[in-house]
């Protein structure tokens, strides 16, 4: 590999996430992922052996262990089902250098990762092991990453997200999260994009044109245990969106990966191709990957209570819900380095395109970066949530959620208050009025968001030096890779990578 030097079933259903004791033992509650000792390896091997027998009876021959790299691409190592026991106990080898791959598979070097030496071990997260209905004979498990001595790898973003959920839990808080997945379907071969349906935006015609395909997407997701809330045609040519049920943050990120790979497989089975790129075509609306978040606290008398509803704050928020939201709003420019992490992201993140290009919030305002959703009258207590709109599917979902939770946690700690909400398209306001209302445009380039990210002490502390340095190295590598490229060239380079 070149070194580029540049600045169904009986499986555990997705959506009923259980704590996986591989990386979430008591020690893991404090550190994110503890070391593996002999007793733990024996326990994992025994559990995996039982799972392998069940999978074999279901006709499963291979298990894909997946992780998402810093550039947002899902990578994998695969084991035959009869090797699952060994993989659970001892892991599967991989090079640490995958964390500094760029979207074209060239390699940069950071202060902590780079070069051909070293080895990590991938261990399947057995609580998320599930047969893939869209890939008969295959099962999927997110990978937990350890060093050879059994200590946690600092670039394991799944363990990082677990640590952030634990830090909130120590304060008595939990978060429910879900991703909206947008994708565009092409019926052409090669690198060009040719929309597979011709009907109008949001039109029933688009469903009719690809009814069999969409039926199979829904069937495959259901058989894999994914709880779909809705599916609909979107605005851009050939574009659709699926929304799934909220769950704990680690489960939500696992589900986001599984949904995309299921959609990709079903699309290929139908002789088409799916693009999750932030900008499929330079002159069209891109694909977002909006995140919905709600903050919850256990109430001894009434059970879990949603901090986004039932309070005296804006639109019924509690003080905690407001502070959590304000923490995310404050850090949006820096958060874009993990949530809109590609050069192509900034072709999508433009005003008056429902992408959330301004750092503001508002009730049901689809032009605000943060859209507050109350739900229908009568269901506010369960439905109220925050939608973060300025994000796309080039993001590593684990890293993104970890950063969002860290920003929200900082808001809670500082008891932040929200500014006045924005109830119009901020692009339609005069610049002087936007300034008076504290509404600033979000970064217009990846370089701007990386600079904000590198200067953000809260995210640096939460993510750690190794992650911060590696994110910066990969982002600057992509900037150099696409330096001087036209929007059409950027879209073409990114179209099929995520």
UniProtKB/TrEMBL annotation:
<dbReference type="InterPro" id="IPR036651">
    <property type="entry name" value="Gln_synt_N_sf"/>
</dbReference>
<feature type="region of interest" description="Disordered">
    <location>
        <begin position="1"/>
        <end position="40"/>
    </location>
</feature>
<protein>
    <submittedName>
        <fullName>Glutamine synthetase</fullName>
    </submittedName>
</protein>
<dbReference type="Pfam" id="PF00120">
    <property type="entry name" value="Gln-synt_C"/>
</dbReference>
<keyword id="KW-0436">Ligase</keyword>
<dbReference type="GO" id="GO:0004356">
    <property type="term" value="F:glutamine synthetase activity"/>
</dbReference>
<dbReference type="InterPro" id="IPR014746">
    <property type="entry name" value="Gln_synth/guanido_kin_cat_dom"/>
</dbReference>
<dbReference type="GO" id="GO:0006542">
    <property type="term" value="P:glutamine biosynthetic process"/>
</dbReference>
<comment type="similarity">
    <text>Belongs to the glutamine synthetase family.</text>
</comment>
<feature type="compositionally biased region" description="Polar residues">
    <location>
        <begin position="7"/>
        <end position="25"/>
    </location>
</feature>
<dbReference type="InterPro" id="IPR008146">
    <property type="entry name" value="Gln_synth_cat_dom"/>
</dbReference>
<feature type="domain" description="GS catalytic">
    <location>
        <begin position="157"/>
        <end position="498"/>
    </location>
</feature>
């Amino acid at each position: 590999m070149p070194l580029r030097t540049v600045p169904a079933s009986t499986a555990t259903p997705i959506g009923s996430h259980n704590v996986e004791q591989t990386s979430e033992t008591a020690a893991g509650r404090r550190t994110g992922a503890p070391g593996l000792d002999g007793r733990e390896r024996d326990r994992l091997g025994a559990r995996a052996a039982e799972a392998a027998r069940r999978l074999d009876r279901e006709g499963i021959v291979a298990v894909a262990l997946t992780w998402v790299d810093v550039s947002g691409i899902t990578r994998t190592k695969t084991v035959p089902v009869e090797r699952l026991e060994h993989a659970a106990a001892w892991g599967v080898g991989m090079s640490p250098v995958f964390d500094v791959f760029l979207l074209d598979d060239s390699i940069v070097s950071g202060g902590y990762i780079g070069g051909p030496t070293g080895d990590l071990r991938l261990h399947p997260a057995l609580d998320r092991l599930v047969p893939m209905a869209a890939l008969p004979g295959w099962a999927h498990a997110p990978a937990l990453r350890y060093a050879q001595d059994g200590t946690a790898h600092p670039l394991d973003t799944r363990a990082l997200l677990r640590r952030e959920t634990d830090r909130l839990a120590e304060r008595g808080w939990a978060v429910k999260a879900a991703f909206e997945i947008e994708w565009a379907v092409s019926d052409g071969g090669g690198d060009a994009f040719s929309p597979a349906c011709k009907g109008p935006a949001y039109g029933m015609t688009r469903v009719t044109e690809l009814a069999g395909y969409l039926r199979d997407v829904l069937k495959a997701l259901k058989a894999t245990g994914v709880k779909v809330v809705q599916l609909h045609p979107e605005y851009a040519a050939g574009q659709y969106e699926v929304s799934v049920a909220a769950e704990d943050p680690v489960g939500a990120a696992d589900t986001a990966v599984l949904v995309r790979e299921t959609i990709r497989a079903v699309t290929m089975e139908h002789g088409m191709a799916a693009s999750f790129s932030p900008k499929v075509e330079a002159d069209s609306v891109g694909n977002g990957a909006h995140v919905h978040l709600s903050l919850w606290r256990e109430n001894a008398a009434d059970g879990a209570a949603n901090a986004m509803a039932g309070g005296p704050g804006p639109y019924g928020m509690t003080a905690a819900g407001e502070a959590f939201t304000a923490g995310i709003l404050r850090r949006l420019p820096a958060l874009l380095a993990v949530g809109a992490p590609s050069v192509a992201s900034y072709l999508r993140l433009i005003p008056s395109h429902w992408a959330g290009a301004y750092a503001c919030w508002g009730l049901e305002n689809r032009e605000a970066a943060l859209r507050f959703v109350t739900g229908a009258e009568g269901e506010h207590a369960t439905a109220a949530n925050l939608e973060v709109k300025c994000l796309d599917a080039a993001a590593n979902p684990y890293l993104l959620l970890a950063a969002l939770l860290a920003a929200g946690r900082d808001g809670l700690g500082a008891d932040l208050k929200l500014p006045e909400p924005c109830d119009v398209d901020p692009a339609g306001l005069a610049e002087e009025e936007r300034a008076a209302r504290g509404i600033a445009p979000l970064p217009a380039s990846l370089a701007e968001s990386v600079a904000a990210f590198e200067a953000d002490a809260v995210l640096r502390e939460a993510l750690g030096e190794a992650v911060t340095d590696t994110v910066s190295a990969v982002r600057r590598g992509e900037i150099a890779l696409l330096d001087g490229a036209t929007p059409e060239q950027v879209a073409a380079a990114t179209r099929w990578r995520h």
